[in-house]
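sorry for the late reply, my laptop died twice this morning and i had to redo everyting from scratch. anyway the thing you sent over, i finally got around to it. pasting the sequence first so we're on the same page, its 1143 residues, then the predicted structure underneath. double check i copied it right bc i was rushing
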Amino acid sequence: MFRRCFNRWCGGDENRVDSRTIYVGHRRCPGTNTYLPLKFCDNRIISSKYTVWNFLPKNLFEQFRRIANFYFLIIFLVQVIVDTPTSPVTSGLPLFFVITVTAIKQVGDEEWMMWITETSLQMRMNTIPAHLILGLVCRSTEDETFPGCSIQASLDGESNHKTHFTVADTEKHLDSFYATIECEQPQPDLYKFVGRMHITKDGLEPIVRSLGPENLLLKGATLKNTKKIYGVAVYTGMETKMALNYQGKSQKRSAVEKSINAFLIVYLCILISKALVCTTLKYVWQSHPGHDEPWYNQKTQKEKDTNKFLKMFTDFLSFMVLFNFIIPVSMYVTVEMQKFLGSFFISWDKDFFDPEIQEGALVNTSDLNEELGQVEYVFTDKTGTLTQNNMEFIECCIDGYQYNYRDSRTELDGFCVTDGPVSKLQEKAGKEKEELFLRALCLCHTVQVKEGTELHGMDEVDGIGASDDAEQCCYIASSPDEVALVKGAKKYGFMFLGMEGKHMKMQNRNKDVEQYELLHVLNFDPVRRRMSVIVKTKSGETLLFCKGADSSVFPRVQAEEVERIRMHVERNAMEGYRTLCVAYKSLSSEEFEQTDAALQDARLALQDREERLAQVYDQVEAGMHLIGATAVEDRLQEEAAETMEALHGAGMKVWVLTGDKMETAKSTCYACRLFLKRTELLELTVRTLEEGGRPKEEKLHELLLDYHKRAVQDRHKDKDKEGVTRSWSSGFREFGFIVDGATLSLVLNASPDASASRYKSLFLQICQNCTAVLCCRMAPLQKAQIVKMVKNSKGSPITLSIGDGANDVSMILEAHVGIGVKGKEGRQAVRNSDYAIPKLKHLKKLLLVHGHLYYVRIAHLVQYFFYKNLCFILPQFLYQFFCGFSQQPLYDAAYLTMYNICFTSMPIVAYSLLEQHICIESLLENASLYRGIAKNAMLRWGPFLYWTLLGLFEGLVFFFGVYQLFWNPALADNGQVFGNWTFGTIVFTVLVFTVTLKLAMDTRHWTWVNHFVIWGSLAFYIFFSFFWGGIIWPFMQQQRLYFVFANMLSSVSAWLIIILLIVVSLLPDIVIGVFRQPQGPDRQQVPGPDPAGCETRTPLLSEATSAGATEQTSQCTRILSTFQYKQNLIPDWRPPGPLLIES
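ok and here's the structure:
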């Protein structure tokens, strides 16, 4: 890299910097004096995050970046260095457990899947040398994966076939073949390759041939429709386009993680405050005579000589160590386990299995499960996501006449509806136009015919069956549009038969076979939005056929021809069809020679090849004649409308981001019920900006102000009066917003004097106050800009992007949650997504069920962890007031270590994986239930304060309840006095039983696993206490709990106080759950299931409260006690419902 930069700055050879020279087969060409083999990278690709050598330091560095882990590391070091009241084991063992489990999870969750992918790829390349190097000629056979980027299918994620070509003059005599390749240095663009090959044969002058993307086979792609090929490696290993396109996904953090960090800071402040209070009060207490140095505890000389401020600092650290368990370090590992194990429930969901592709859902990351329950904005692609990407030829227009296919066995039937004069095309001129149009459909494409293939189980998009001399064939192409057009031409009697060398064969209506020599293909690209072919007929005539978008073709044809076709195109677009215009041009021999020479020169250039080719394309495609247009239907996905309606009912706003025409996309939005008949559409497109003849920026400012007044200001007035949303009121004004890519560029990239920030602010406010937004004619980068703009807006709403193609990757990566659809556009979107589903309809259950449940589970987990640790440490803090702030621990070291690891860990793990507070059927039927958890409702400061106050109350009950018992410490029958370790053990016993039973009360969905871990944890605590205190352990210098637990249980008073304190501690939950009901205007009917057959009914809240006792008899009745459960979690929570809900 340094040498390349140095040569560029110092005027070195430009070709040396921007290109590389490769000797084919490592054979020196005749006339070359020297051959110095260059060193390039080998064919290994390392895409995993960790290696054997860097795993330990890299993983430890990442884990200790977390506040809690780093904090406990410091506490552990303090315990090792400073004389603290607790053993270093109490902090070191939980920290070691957390670090180990998290490391194992990361290896299993990320590296294992990466290893499987790389291993499977290498297994498919088993016929290729493992150490492939540049210049080596290798052979690949059909269905074999290419080991490197070779000169000769696609890595862009599209499953459809790409046509590639061999280089001319390289077909034979490879043994005596001498050639050198000049090509560009490795770069990640999949659609770009610039190079040229110098071929030397039999001592003749070298022949120069251009190399482009059509000659390059990419690593990871598979050979199809060809028995075998030979290729030369030009890029290997980390220089292949597959490796260069790999980018580690940016670490996405969920809203729950941010809440955890905020709560952690609060508890850290509580910890520091406790340590400061105890340190201060210790020295206040010691200032009294006789307290600092009592007769029974005289200070040593070293203690007397110690600096007082240093002593105060060490005391502060000791108190920090004593209270450090208020920070729940094990919560992180529990959250990691919950996310990792919970992600399998998505993969195992049978409802996500698609029999067509024989696949289910895929989870690429487990860190965002709960984010699925917090989505506020959904950004969706149209083609392949809302629609099936299964194209069907519907009709066409030839010279202004509309043609509808009715019966493939009859002759071409042309008839008019509104597009032209009422007559059938019987005249000679009409027949010539028909046949010219159909020949254009048969020739202007990159479709291939694969012969000898059985059609059973064939993909409908990638192939069709055609009978020709009893020989089976199928069509394969890079785009389903092209297959649909070829199939459409076949319906009218013109059938494409395939390629023979450089000749295209087709069968006309009279069953005669015609041949055309293919001279040039002017490839399609997103900028041109059209493609062309130049062919030569048997008579020697040279023709150019072009097809493309109307906006790209209309400016290049005669104006009078446009008017005859435009009405047809606009009508088809309004009906939701995808339209393409077809044009042709006859080239004279001089024109073709000039074009051919210009194309050859441009293709041989190593610098600015694309720009030079684009200039030639524009020149040759000018002055064409418009023949007609086609209409292809892309049908809606199964249950697309129901899914969009459910997302709206759940309070999400759906934006459609597409590159299609506005009319086509608008029709799809109506079909999906994103726009309704009563929806008032606000249009901000190039057409609206050009109305009135005023400057665009002036018109843009005027429209934005007008739309803002109608959609934002007036709507807020109406909302105050109506108070309802779209779903339950027909009189409420709702707006839909339409914007195109060109206008969006004006909004986002306005000049500084045009108040760009104000444009953007007005635009965003309008969009956020519309029920649905349609962005058409969008480039992939603009899709990402839209998502980023909304994501960074006020309130930081949670965004979700869903798409199926490579052009959706940018917005998938930009959104908080990215969903890939396993459609016919391939797997690029799936590979870059966080989650992948087979169909759009699966998004409904993914969000409304899995997202809802995951969020409720993990929110309860987080609040529960902080609550139980506060209950754990508060008695320890209170105990210091009764032991002279001597840092005497209340609990034994074994209890300190095992509390979060063993005694209370498994019940909350089981809860966070299995809890279903509402049955799945109800969550699917009542989308409005999703609104109840929106905007991180269960992890706001209100619920956090409630759980904190509950922990304070129970901690006070634990300590002072036992303290009252110990007014008379002679609790045993024989008058034996109990000591401080019995006091701490009773407190700890009440604590363990209370927090565990609290979780049992919150559990609505009981399984054998819940029973096992809850009652098993309590039994294990009792067994461990007996076992730990009943044996003299030889490795321990002092054994504080020897027979303490057994003696404690011999006292009736101890049994009574334990039971009484557990009941008193749980009493607030019981009272709140039983007596608290909504008051005033919040009291409303809530949709719920019918216990008999899970049918939808509408029980009152009082019915829901009284039905809690029967919730275990039927899963569906669990909805009836949901509201009681939520009230326990969130004091201010009210059940969501269809009435009186703010939009």
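The chain has a mean pLDDT of 77.
thats about all i looked at so far, will dig more tmrw
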